Amino acid sequence: MGTAQTSQTSAGHYRAFGPEVQDALSLLQADHRRLEELFAEFDTRTTSAQRKRELAVLICRAFRVHRALEEEIFYPALLAGNEDEDSYDEALEAHAMAAILIDDIEQSGPTDVLFEAKLQILRDMLRLHVAEEEGSNGLFAAAVACDLDLEALGAEMTQRREELSRGLFATD
Prior knowledge:
The protein is mainly alpha-helical. It has one domain (6-168). It has 6 helices and 2 strands. The chain has helices at residues 24-44, 49-82, 85-107, 115-134, 139-145, 150-168; strands spanning 6-8, 14-16. Strands 1-2 form a two-stranded antiparallel ribbon. A hairpin with a 5-residue loop joins strand 1 and strand 2. Helix 2 (49-82) packs antiparallel against helix 3, helix 2 (49-82) runs antiparallel to helix 6 (150-168) and helix 3 (85-107) runs antiparallel to helix 4. 27% of the residues are buried. Mean pLDDT is 84; it is low at 1-21.
């Protein structure tokens, strides 16, 4: 497969050119937007404790899948392409901290007095994560600069997402 062509928009976002191109950056960016949407619904569009619990479950599942795609596929490819171990280590550490918080959120619920505060912290972690990846000097820019085969990575990530989703959403 050839390298997907990408461009950076004025907002610092990357997009793929061509029909049905599912490059790695577009897939990861879509995850970021989906998580932002779920948090927005949690914050502003529901007061129901049951719906808040459902949204928290969706947020945690989406984070777990996103984390796996980055740790198993995207970050190792990026590290091989640019050898920036510091950025790689920082990303893994941020993921580890998010995983601890996600476990805590999943074990609690809307009746926990800290439930919404925990989700606020997770949202703040997402904002930082997005800035570190999508910023003009972020990991997405590094992926473009080292000429990764983003289309091939995207295909691999799509396949892995399907595998992970089958396991996480099997009871839905």
